[in-house]
Amino acid sequence: MFDIQEELSKLPDQPGVYIMHDIADTIIYIGKARSLRKRVRQYFQPSHDEGIKKRQMVQNIARFEYIITDSELEALVLECNLIKEHCPKYNTMLRDDKTYPYIKVTVGEAFPRVLFAREMKKDRSRYFGPYTSAGAVKDTIDLVNKIYQLRTCNRNLPKDIKKDRPCLNYHIHQCDAPCQGNSSKEEYGEKVNKVLEFLNGNYRPVMKELEEKMMKASEELQFEKAIEYRELLGSVKQIAQKQKITNADGEDKDIVAMACDDTDAVVQVFFVRSGKIIGRDHFHVRVGAEEDKKNVLTTFVKQFYSGTPFIPKEIMIQEPVEEQEVLEEWLTRKRGRKVTIRIPQKGMKEKLVELAGKNAQLVLSQDKEKIKREEGRTIGAVKEIEGLLGMKNLNRMEAYDISNINGFETVGSMVVYEKGKPKKSDYRKFKLRTVAGPDDYASMHEVLTRRFLHGMQEQQEIKDKEMSPEYGSFNRFPDIILMDGGKGQVNICEGVLQELGLSIPVCGMVKDDNHRTRGLYYQNEEIPIDRHGEGFKLITRIQDEAHRFAIEYHRSLRSKSQVHSVLDDIEGIGPTRRKALMRQFQSLERIKNATLEELAETESMNQAAAEKVYNFFHKG
Q1: Is residue 234 part of a domain?
Q2: What's the rounded Cα separation, in Å, for the pair 430 and 453?
């Protein structure tokens, strides 16, 4: 038994991280302290008050643990890592977990490529970014490849030169096909150098080159070519215009400001790289009542910069942050060079921070309206269904569907909605084991039996072994089961529940002659439903989702069973030889008509394998 008062007396007077657990042993809060003894004891002193959120948290603490560190800085790093890993309920949380894209040039390869990358790795490639728009990165990569006609394939060059035919890009004049030896390493390297210059922001050489090519094509009356160069030139100019100078110092900085209300906050960040504003982004932060801006902004800085791959020289903020010196030291270590956090007081920098704050306020107000609309579609819709069925506290809904074609590969689907939203992590699919032929009732009986038997077994394991309620994937039962059909499907479900000794409400979704839901079948009655209401729309979405999930699974099984070549039936002919034969002869008909000598001369084949193929087609 964990005795909180006894454990408080054992706390060391050292820096470290403390971890609070509730009665289910779930981590509910993680914090850091300069002195674990002083900080953790504060939570349990009657005179100490940090607001409603912290009071609720303390009431739920069943035990705590701690990890000591050598310094407050180490405690900060550990706190960031643990919060990101466990996402505790009572920590102020950054809701977004965004990664920013890079443009990667594989200069370590003999024939480099320009690629889209989500992270910067320690390889021999050159990286440009990070950028805030994945779309803009893809557009830039497409533009660069069109202008310089670099390869986009994964072939190992020069090793694979002339081993295979050139791809479509060669035929549509978007690649010079170095895979065919059409471009030497030196010639290709010159184009790559121009790409690197372009990505570094020097657009003038390529603009001049495109203008010259456009004029030459026009003079030679090659108007289609001239139009193509004109469009490429326009794209380059557009990219060049997007780079707007914000100041003349040419430095990297982030401008951070926020807006908040009682429950939510939005932090706006402007990204300035080499003196140019390359974009902006906003982030939603979950906050508690009575939390001040200083606390929220400090939390954001810690969580955001613990995950972002790039840290600028300067971070400009609108409000003071807690432990600024410790934060600056931590950021400096992560960056490898000095990082400064500043609150600008005047001039252009102050106006930029103010502008970021206005943008944050705008996003917050717009999102509040969006949240209200979303609540109508979800929570409001659930309330509507509760009213129709005379129920309360309807949270988790499960729906099931069966899919087959003439009894082939019959499958079942289970979809889950919580608070009116799909919970895809709890979706499950079933491949039928005991039912042969197109029998939907028997199929549904098997699916439901397997689902709830599995759930009951998990519940028993949790009870016997005192495991966390999060154990397993079937142990949570629904507040209501929605069946995609009327009385017949409901009876099947109620029969399964009765066999297993379970009591869960079951509701059928009754359709009209046009296969549209006309009402709900519940407790032996058909209840009409308003087709214009949010409840009806939610029921329809759940039906469609259960059907989609079943069809998708069935389609995947059909595809797997159909991906089969007649060559797979020949003993000794595996994937490598099959591919070699198809490359050599292009069709099964040609393989069938080939001589024994032609088959034996094929790459990867030997005399014995050739005889097996020949005999398969010629000796019945």
Answers
A1: no
A2: 14
Angstrom distance (rounded) from CA 394 to CA 77: 41
The residue among 177, 141, 174, 142 whose CA lies nearest residue 157 is 177
> Which two structure tokens, joined as six digits, stand for 148?
């310089």
Contacts of residue 500, defined as CB under 8 A and 6 or more positions apart, other chains included, come to: 449, 452, 453, 456
Q: Quote the longest CA-to-CA distance of the chain.
A: 95
| Percent of the chain scoring above 90 in pLDDT | 12
pLDDT of 228 over the 60 cut:
yes
Q: Mark which of 328, 344, 374 sits at the end of a domain.
A: 374
Alpha-carbon distance of 611 to 61, in angstroms, equals 75
Tokens coding 103: 């443009």
Q: What is the distance between the terminal CA atoms of the chain, rounded to a whole angstrom? A: 77
pLDDT of residue 250 exceeding 60: no
593: amino acid identity, one letter: N
Tokens encoding 384: 């509507």
What pLDDT digit, counting tens, does each position of 348-406 carry?
778 888 888 888 887 787 776 776 677 778 888 899 999 999 988 898 999 998 887 65
Nearest residue to 468 (alpha-carbon basis) of 18, 53, 62, 57: 62
DSSP label at residue 87: -
- What is the per-residue DSSP string for 382-407? HHHHHHHHT-----EEEEEEEEEETT
Query: Does one domain contain both 395 and 544?
Result: yes
Residue 298 lies in a domain: yes
- Residue 427 resides in a domain: yes
Residue 521 counted as domain residue: yes
User: The domain that contains 342 carries what CATH number?
Assistant: 3.30.420.10
C-alpha closest to that of 348 among 278, 255, 257: 255
Indicate the pairing of strand 16-21 with strand 63-68. Answer: antiparallel
**Domain containing residue 344:** 253-374
Which pLDDT score, from 0 to 100, does residue 243 have?
A: 45
- Higher-pLDDT residue of 164 and 203 is 164
What number of residues does the chain have? 620
Interhelix angle 223-242/204-219, rounded to 10 degrees, is 160
- Please report the DSSP string for 285-349 in residue order: EE--TT--HHHHHHHHHHHHHHH-S---SEEEESS--TTHHHHHHHHHHHHSS--EEE---SHHH
**Residue type for position 372:** K
**H or E segment at 254?**
strand 253-260
Query: What pTM was estimated for this model as a whole?
Result: 0.42
CB contact burial 9-43 (16+ within 10 A = b; e otherwise): eebeebbbbbbbbbeeebbbbbbbbeebbebbeeb
Cα(265)–Cα(288) distance, integer angstroms? 10
DSSP conformation class of 226: H
